[in-house]
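Input structure tokens:
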């Protein structure tokens, strides 16, 4: 969708965060968070087209497009043999029956839930930033591993986030954990439009120019110019400032042998 609400075409940008959605009990709930700037570059890149203050995209448009994309994906999955029908749903394995089941979906009003973020755009970005590289379960929630059983803490959101413990056999716990390991070819963060990797070096500065603002310097640029900048990194043990001494590639880390520990004669 790149057509502006004011009748002018514009090139949008979008950053998508793929989350496996590890719930407190370890179940799988995959979903995608999308951050879309409220506006975009004109197709000739001469000016910035703002969105309306009320909302970026109209609900009826989102409803129709989401419905169409979802039903089309169901059709493709059925054609590719990716859907399994068990029990009472076995009849849907027949192409004519499946097509008849899909047809009424286009006559339904799909629900698209829209609301303003509670804390504003800054809060949303801070919230997503905490989860982009977070593991499925943090160490402090693991209580014990004994007799092939793993006990961990979880919060029951249905009862005022009351903290409870759960014990699972080791194989079931590992299965839940591995559900959140991305398959080969998947990435957690992907950029589109003028934020895409091949375009943003040119289009981002142009966007800032049209908006009358300047991009903030990146952390690496700040480090290069002021090596003694206070508070960039702090030691997790003593709290003192840390300084980059050397940068190693993944290949260098693998090739570097561990230090030799000398023994007393």
């Amino acid at each position: 969708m790149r057509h502006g609400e004011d009748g002018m075409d514009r090139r949008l940008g979008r950053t998508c965060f793929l989350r496996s959605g590890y719930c407190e009990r370890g179940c799988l709930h995959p979903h995608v968070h999308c951050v879309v700037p409220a506006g975009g570059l004109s197709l000739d890149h001469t000016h910035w087209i703002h969105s309306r203050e009320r909302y970026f995209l109209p609900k009826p448009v989102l409803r129709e497009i989401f419905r169409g994309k979802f039903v089309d994906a169901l059709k493709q999955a059925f054609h590719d043999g990716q859907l399994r029908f068990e029990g009472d749903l076995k009849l849907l394995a027949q192409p004519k029956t499946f097509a008849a089941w899909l047809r009424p979906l286009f006559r339904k009003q799909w629900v698209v839930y829209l609301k303003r973020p509670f804390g504003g755009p800054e809060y949303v970005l801070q919230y997503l930033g905490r989860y982009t590289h977070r593991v499925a379960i943090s160490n402090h929630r693991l209580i014990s591993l004994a007799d092939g059983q793993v006990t961990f803490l979880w919060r029951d959101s249905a009862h005022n986030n009351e903290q409870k413990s759960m014990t699972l056999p080791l194989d079931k716990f590992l299965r839940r954990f591995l559900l959140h390991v991305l398959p080969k070819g998947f990435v957690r963060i992907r950029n589109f439009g003028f934020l895409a990797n091949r375009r943003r070096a040119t289009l981002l500065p142009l966007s800032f120019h049209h908006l009358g603002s300047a991009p903030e310097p990146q952390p690496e640029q700040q480090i290069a110019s002021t090596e003694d900048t206070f508070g960039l990194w702090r030691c997790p043990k003593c709290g003192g400032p840390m300084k980059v001494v050397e940068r190693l590639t993944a290949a260098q880390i693998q090739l570097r042998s561990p230090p030799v520990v000398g023994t007393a004669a």
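The CA atoms of residues 33 and 146 lie 37 Å apart. The chain has three domains: 1-55+114-136+183-215, 138-179, 219-255.
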